[in-house]
Write a structure and sequence with these properties.
By secondary structure, the protein is mainly α. The protein has one domain (about 20-80). It contains 4 helices and no strands. It starts with a helix and ends with a helix.
């Protein structure tokens, strides 16, 4: 009984964690965001600073790897194609 309860709790905790793919995607886009933020701060440009901050933060709110890739790609494209 106790062993079954422990495995049920472990399965629930594991299913709520982020996948390895999502973690890798978020780390890569966070590094891009950090670089964009530093570039914007150095050159006093607001747009790269805001988009860089958004790239560093959005990973806390998106738990699906494909959606994370889509959001990160869109925000990165906005940095490089401003108009």
């Amino acid at each position: 009984m106790i062993l079954w309860l422990g495995s049920a709790v472990a399965a629930r905790v594991q299913s709520s964690l982020m996948s390895i793919g999502n973690i890798l995607v978020v780390v890569v886009f966070s590094l891009v965001g950090f670089a964009a933020f530093r570039y914007g701060k150095k050159n006093s440009e607001v747009r790269p600073m805001l988009l860089g901050a958004a790239l560093m933060v959005y990973g806390y709110f998106v738990s699906n790897a494909w959606l994370s890739l889509l959001v990160g790609g869109a925000l990165t494209a906005l940095i490089f194609f401003p108009r």
